[in-house]
């Protein structure tokens, strides 16, 4: 008698977020073998959302589970949600919204390992090296476990998202209502990356037969300053958009007006100053090499979502 083949499942933490939702969409659209578990704090309220429609239509591919980093009682929910004959083979990890979460994240890695999970894919950031602050500690832990042969792993280090201009309130509101962009980056360049491309790299890292066991610096195809972004938006929207270069203190004050905690605003202004000094002035071919498709350019993204910025505003 042959041994039954277990169906693999993938857990996507933050599965309704900017990158996570795209990973779920790509997995459920293109991968017919894996069951996808979409973990979020709002999973129990999905019935009134478009996610509920997807859940109904693709019940055999996608299941929503309640997961809260701050409530360890919910950590077992993804494992309880697995149907018979299904094994959780990989987890996509995105950090909770706090500045001191590395211990919590490493504890969850061990929790999942004890329940048979073999592969972990972490979303970090281009500005965070292994062993550094925040996700850097988790990056280093996964690498250490991998070197000991205890896990398969990958760390995605994407640069700044193109979607920020359409989805972050501070950018969206200023473009739509003032025809302005604010930063403290000066003329510093950034290889802005599209969240769809980040998700595509993640899908390969989660599903490829051979374990990645590496980090991916996920960058867009062109170096653009905030001034360059303003010029592209001006062309796309048919009105003049300008970049207002702030001091670090002015940026922190602005971000705090939008509800950002003070400690986060300090971190964000420091990152802007780092960009001003050239920290993000680099490109690579990671997206093309991993996915086989060229990364999306900012102008194409802006054209696809230009309605969100409206037609008004002051020149």
Automatic annotation (TrEMBL):
<keyword id="KW-0560">Oxidoreductase</keyword>
<dbReference type="InterPro" id="IPR019901">
    <property type="entry name" value="Ergot_alkaloid_biosynthesis"/>
</dbReference>
<dbReference type="InterPro" id="IPR008030">
    <property type="entry name" value="NmrA-like"/>
</dbReference>
<dbReference type="GO" id="GO:0009820">
    <property type="term" value="P:alkaloid metabolic process"/>
</dbReference>
<dbReference type="InterPro" id="IPR036291">
    <property type="entry name" value="NAD(P)-bd_dom_sf"/>
</dbReference>
<keyword id="KW-0017">Alkaloid metabolism</keyword>
<dbReference type="Pfam" id="PF05368">
    <property type="entry name" value="NmrA"/>
</dbReference>
<comment type="pathway">
    <text>Alkaloid biosynthesis; ergot alkaloid biosynthesis.</text>
</comment>
<feature type="domain" description="NmrA-like">
    <location>
        <begin position="9"/>
        <end position="270"/>
    </location>
</feature>
<comment type="similarity">
    <text>Belongs to the fgaFS/easG family.</text>
</comment>
<protein>
    <recommendedName>
        <fullName>NmrA-like domain-containing protein</fullName>
    </recommendedName>
</protein>
<dbReference type="InterPro" id="IPR051604">
    <property type="entry name" value="Ergot_Alk_Oxidoreductase"/>
</dbReference>
<dbReference type="GO" id="GO:0016491">
    <property type="term" value="F:oxidoreductase activity"/>
</dbReference>
């Amino acid at each position: 008698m042959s041994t039954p083949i277990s169906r693999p499942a993938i857990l996507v933490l933050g599965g309704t977020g900017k990158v996570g939702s795209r990973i779920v969409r790509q997995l459920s659209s293109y991968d017919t073998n894996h069951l996808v578990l979409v973990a979020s704090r709002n999973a129990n309220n999905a019935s009134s959302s478009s996610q509920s429609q997807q859940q109904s239509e693709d019940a055999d591919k996608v299941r929503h589970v309640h997961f809260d980093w701050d409530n360890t009682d919910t950590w077992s929910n993804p494992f309880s949600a697995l149907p018979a004959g299904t094994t959780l083979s990989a987890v996509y990890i995105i950090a909770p919204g706090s500045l001191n979460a590395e211990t919590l994240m490493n504890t969850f890695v061990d929790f999942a390992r004890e329940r048979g999970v073999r592969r972990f894919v972490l979303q970090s950031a281009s500005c965070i090296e292994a062993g550094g602050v925040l996700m850097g500690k988790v990056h280093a832990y996964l690498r250490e476990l991998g070197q000991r042969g205890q896990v398969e792993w990958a760390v995605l280090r994407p640069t700044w998202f193109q979607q920020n201009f359409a989805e972050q309130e501070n950018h969206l509101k200023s473009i739509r209502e003032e025809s302005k962009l604010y930063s403290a980056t000066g003329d510093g360049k950034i290889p802005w990356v599209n969240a769809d491309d980040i998700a595509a790299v993640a899908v390969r890292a989660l599903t490829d037969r051979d374990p990645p066991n590496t980090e991916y610096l996920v960058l867009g195809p062109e170096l653009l300053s905030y001034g360059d972004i303003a010029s592209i938006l001006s062309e796309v929207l048919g009105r003049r958009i300008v970049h207002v270069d702030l001091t670090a203190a002015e940026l922190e004050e602005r971000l705090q007006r939008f509800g950002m905690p003070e400690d986060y605003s300090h971190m964000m202004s420091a990152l802007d100053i780092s960009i001003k000094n050239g920290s993000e002035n680099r490109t690579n071919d990671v997206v093309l090499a991993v996915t086989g498709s060229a990364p999306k350019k900012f102008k194409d993204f802006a054209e696809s979502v230009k309605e969100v910025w409206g037609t008004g505003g002051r020149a």
